[in-house]
Amino acid sequence: MTNESILQATQTYLMANYGRIPLVTARASGATVWDATGKQYLDLFAGFGAGGLGHCHPKVVAAIGKAAGEMMAVGNLYTWESQVRLAEAIIRHSFPGKVFYCHSGAEANEAAIKLARRAGGEGRYKIISFHKCFHGRTLGSLSVTATKAYQAGFEPMLPGNVCVPFGDLKAVENAIDDQTAGVIVEPIQGEGGVNVPTVEFMKGLRALCDRHKLTLICDEVWTAPARTGKWFAYQHYGIVPDVMTLAKAIGGGVPVAACVGREAFGDVLTPGTHGCTLGGNPVCAAAGAAVCQAIEEENLVDEARRKGERIVQAIKNAAIGRVKEIRGKGLMLGIELDAAPDQAKAVFNACLDAGVMINIAQGNVVRLAPPMVITDDELDQGLAVVIDAMKG
Ligand SMILES: *Cc1c(COP(=O)(O)O)cnc(C)c1O
């Protein structure tokens, strides 16, 4: 198909739910993406973080190829090696507990909300979440994503959920009643514009959940694995959640998601209470296990931290008047500009024209989340373009 015909057919056959850019992508490797005309782009956003390991990481490609040739789907009535290898790696790097597999962040959060309701017992169903959070688009996960723009036209939501200001412990405490089941929080907000909570806030949430016997859910869909300079971002705060959810980068580009329960929380979903036909299927689980292995072998936790510092330093050195604040940890960074949404859009367009992919959140936050395997040279080249564009 020609470029034009693909763009045309996209409009004809695909729902218009994404605000797509008319760019036909064709091939990708490491931190590089090529469009259908052969133009090369440096990817400083890694497909919404899903390309944490870079595009088509050879270890992931090999694992998928091998698994696809061996066994693709036999059903969760049985078990297989790759799904225990991935779970073992997740648990080894987090906390003693157990894993449930599905395919998307939204689905992982659905599982977490169901788990919190069951753990809470009869009558406890309310979940507390935070302003500017993002937990997914299914009705359950949307119900705790209290942004009007996302919910408009889809009401009513699940009842009882309360959304309070991010960082406001008093508001959390006031929102808790005897019907509250849990709290869901991103250890760094992604779609909300890369907002980093304080250690005191996260520790305070942990204490409130302990005191009121609530399930503390950390939504690590954007932040893990490794991207923030720790395997899991909750580890920056000296706390352990009861449940954490994973998706995006854990599959290295194929749909893998997980809901992980700590100790007794791992035993709440008993036979028949929840399921996902293709969850943890051999191809996806093998990809996830290869991702974890590559992170270990290639020291990507440290690389994410080091490269993140390199970016922050370069942007500080550039002393750009429009930069109000640089937020984030490791390779999950947000640069808030003193700019109107159309000016921020111009930064995005200037980068894309110059062959660099970035993202804009909340109208004025330039989000940078390169693949963790990006080389220092690539990073410097990409940053030069982004810095130029931000200068305007
Ligand atoms: C992207 C995201 C989700 C939703 O993940 P999907 O795979 O798109 O369903 C949930 N939570 C957070 C924090 C996310 O960034």
Note the topology.
Layout (H helix, E strand, L loop, with lengths): L2 H11 L11 E5 L2 E4 L4 E4 L14 H13 L10 H13 L3 E6 L2 H16 L5 E5 L8 H5 L4 H4 L10 E3 L4 H7 L4 E6 L13 H14 L2 E5 L23 E4 L10 E6 L19 H16 L2 H19 L4 E7 L2 E6 L3 H13 L2 E2 L1 E3 L3 E4 L7 H16 L1
Parallel strand pairs: 3-13, 5-6, 5-7, 7-8, 8-9
Antiparallel strand pairs: 1-2, 2-3, 4-10, 9-10, 11-12, 12-15, 14-15
This protein binds pyridoxal-5'-phosphate.
Pyridoxal-5'-phosphate binds next to α4.
Q: Any overview of this molecule?
A:
The chain is α/β, with parallel strands linked by helices and 392 residues long. The protein has helices at residues 3-13, 58-70, 81-93, 105-120, 139-143, 148-151, 169-175, 199-212, 282-297, 300-318, 341-353, 376-391, and strands spanning 25-29, 32-35, 40-43, 97-102, 126-130, 162-164, 180-185, 215-219, 243-246, 257-262, 323-329, 332-337, 356-357, 359-361, 365-368. The protein is 38% helix and 18% strand. The protein contains twelve helices and 15 strands. The strands form three sheets. A seven-stranded mixed β-sheet has the order 4-10-9-8-7-5-6, sandwiched between helices. It is globular. The site of pyridoxal-5'-phosphate has 15 residues, from helix 4.
Question: What structural keywords apply?
Answer:
38% helix; four-stranded mixed sheet; 392 residues; globular; 15 strands; seven-stranded mixed sheet; alpha/beta; binds pyridoxal-5'-phosphate
